[in-house]
Design goal:
mainly beta, PH-domain like, globular
């Protein structure tokens, strides 16, 4: 199996209105798919990265990202356990958003 393009562990995954699905989940991007997993590795949701919308919510702290996967909104609280490839991300959220963009083949904003 190919090395994941992005992996984050210890991720809190919530649905809207603060319904927590897991407090130590995983987010993986590999083979063109985004996967949201529980701490035990059970799949919460997954979709081709081309269909995923990911952004920084304007209302949240800097360690949070919003992802819409298969029409379901998730709030991801990413910590220091995120990395893209072999290099640790300076900011876990920025690393996640960059990994989604690069998996889609898009250029980073402003480039």
């Amino acid at each position: 199996m190919a090395e994941p393009e992005f992996t984050a562990t210890g991720v809190r995954i919530d649905k809207p209105f603060l319904r927590s699905l897991t407090r130590a989940g995983q987010v993986k991007i590999h083979d063109g798919r985004l996967e949201l997993l529980t701490s035990y590795g059970r799949e919460i949701d997954s979709a081709p990265v081309d269909t995923v919308h990911a952004s920084k919510p304007w209302f949240a702290l800097g360690d949070r990202a919003r992802a819409v996967v298969n029409g379901t909104r998730y709030l991801l609280t990413l910590g220091p356990g995120a990395h893209s490839g072999d290099e640790p991300a300076a900011s876990a959220v920025d690393g996640f958003l960059e990994a989604v963009r690069s998996a889609r083949g898009e250029a980073a904003p402003g480039r």
